[in-house]
Amino acid sequence: MATALPASIADVVQRLSSGPLALEVGELALHGMALQVLEEAGKPRGTALTVARAELSGLKLGGPLDLSLAAGTWSLAPLAGAEGAIRAEIVDAHLGFDADVTVPIRQGAIDFKDATVEHVGPDSRMGASRMGIYVDAPNGRSYLYQFASAPVAGVEYESRGAMLGPWVTDRGRLQLQPFVEWLLRQPASGQLLGVPEQARMLFDRTKVSGEVRLADGKLAAPGVQADLAGRAEGRNAVRLHSEAVGRGLTLEIASLSVKNAVFGSGGIETRCDEITGALTLRLFVEGGKVRFAFELATVRMTGLQLRLQR
């Protein structure tokens, strides 16, 4: 026999589904549930819900991506020990030939001397200068991302030979955690202005794939904080792919493992001792705006607590 959702759960769904966001929930099973109710003006109101164990499937949340929220507090410790590689295939490149790009990630860093840009003729090289992240191709240097000012957190710039000669002796490095945290703290307008028009055209012809194995550690974003755990068991590996990265990108975590999670949004505080499951996040451009589609195919939670604020 079907039963109605508790008032607190219904309130959560209503709040998340309001405005530009759309929320869908497939199946939800709650075990060991306790609801705290207060009486206000002669009417009962659910204020807190605790659940010993919950299983959820088919959760989907989507809508416009509000880049203004990004300029907040970020802590991305799992990037500090990340391992993996990102590969890109540039088709009909502006350079006049196709190119295959491989960017290794080791101990949370990209060392541009290890990045390869292979194509017909002499290969190109990637690097980081005080002006930005670049590709040195046979027809000259072009920038994938330009820095508004230097220094930039997490960037070790290229170095040249004696007497400021033209030859680059070290292509530089990116420490992922400080660099990505710095990037996310920039105003949305600044993030977009950093990508030159030529690079945007290039990204529309760039196919991307790869895997990044995140380290254990604290993850904090506006309204969210949690501890990633389970690296030794192969958890929290991010697979990314795109047919044209300028138009969209998909990230998948087939084995998510999170502990001590805290979420706060719309007057709702949610805490959870442990979360495991499978996650997919799609970012795409529609109508000239960036949108997101977040899906939890299956998820298991223990020690779940929800508190509704006035």
What does this structure look like?
This protein is mainly β. The chain has helices at 7-16, 176-185, 188-193, 197-203; strands at 22-24, 27-40, 43-64, 75-76, 83-90, 99-105, 109-111, 116-118, 125-129, 132-137, 140-146, 155-156, 159-160, 168-170, 173-175, 206-213, 217-221, 224-228, 237-242, 248-265, 268-286, 289-308. It folds into two domains: 1-75 and 214-310, no CATH class; 82-206, no CATH class. Strands 1, 2, 3, 4, 5, 6, 8, 16, 17, 18, 19, 20, 21 and 22 form a 14-stranded antiparallel sheet that branches. A three-stranded antiparallel sheet has the order 7-15-12. The protein has a three-stranded antiparallel sheet with strand order 9-10-11. β10 (132-137) and β11 form a beta hairpin. It is elongated, with a radius of gyration of 23 Å.
Notable traits:
elongated, about 300 residues, 14-stranded antiparallel β-sheet, 22 strands, about 10% helix, 4 helices, single chain, mainly beta, three-stranded antiparallel β-sheet, disordered N terminus, 2 domains
Structural Rg: 23 Å
Mean pLDDT: 86
Helix content: 10-25%
**Residues in β-strands, percent:** over 45%
Detail the poorly predicted runs.
1-8
Span between termini: 33 Å
Q: What composes the largest sheet?
A: 14 strands, antiparallel
